[in-house]
Amino acid sequence: MTKPDLCELPLAGAFYYRPTPHQDHRGSFSRLTCAETLADAGLNTNWVQTNLSRTKTRGTVRGMHYQTEPFAEIKLLTCLSGRIFDVLVDLRPTSSTYGQWTGVELDGAAADTLYIPAGFAHGFQTLSDDVTLHYSHSAAFHPDHQAGVSYCDPQIGIRWPLRVTEVSERDANLPQLTTLEEAV
Fold first, then answer.
1. Model's pTM, two decimal places?
2. Is 16 a catalytic residue?
């Protein structure tokens, strides 16, 4: 079984990979997570919680979410079905890419995967109907430490590929980056 090659994204510490499937007449088999591959790159290999996200409608935006210290979490996200435009925003105050974002298109047919470091806000827009995502988290969810930043913050300037058709009330009311900076 071939280990996936990690491709570093423009925001330090964030990685993308596409599993290499073994195929035969029955179908295929892919290694989604490999502790050895992650450890060789100095990345987290301990996952304490897994979640499944399903989104029905193309154009839906979910995010931009993160957890605050001491429960900041690393996420490993795999697209299982459908397609998304996944977005990361670097919120690490000492980072040279603070406040910057990057986006990656993920395809469930290929089981595309992202490694999202702690200190990043994360969100996505569905590019197809019926999207399913699998998340692994390095820390358990703590409601008192959930946070986020506006998906339409002009200071960040995320360029969503489609018109936003759906967003939750919570996500529509997340603060802008300047509000977070003023609170520090």
1. 0.92
2. no
